[in-house]
Amino acid sequence: MAKPSVPSKYTDPTAxxxxxxxxxxxxxxxxxxxxxxxxxxLAVRVDPSVVPxxxxxxxxxxxxxxxxNYTIGFGLVMLGxxxxxxxxxxxxxxxxxxxxxxxxxxxxxxxxxTYYVVSDDPSAVPVMNDLGQYNLVVGIGLMAVGFTFxxxxx
Length: 154
Hints:
By secondary structure, the protein is mainly α. Helix content is 59%, strand content 3%. α1 (21-44) runs antiparallel to α3 (68-83), α3 packs parallel to α6 (134-150) and α4 (95-118) runs antiparallel to α6 (134-150).
């Protein structure tokens, strides 16, 4: 005789569970990407405005990667967002798709607009000051992730 399943408080009876392995993976990738960028920016990179230039922090492999750290960090964030567009996650179904899609579009647009506003002196905005023209890639990449959500919109 089969045991009846007890509904959990984390289960939506019409859409499915809120916390799934895919959602946890997506969340971990986004958090890891943000942490990678923050750690590199604050602890590892050499600040070009300091004279004489201090030595790069550790670990040494991060210092050797240089700007590639931003590619790794933003890549992890965007991969996590793209994974969260799957219907088994809360952002991949129902209103979550619209929230994810518009969120990515708006954040990408704000990123590009902010870069254009501060492009004369980007030293005032952390991370943007190191990326230069690659800020456009970040903004367009976020908008591209928004299109992954748009493919799920019904």
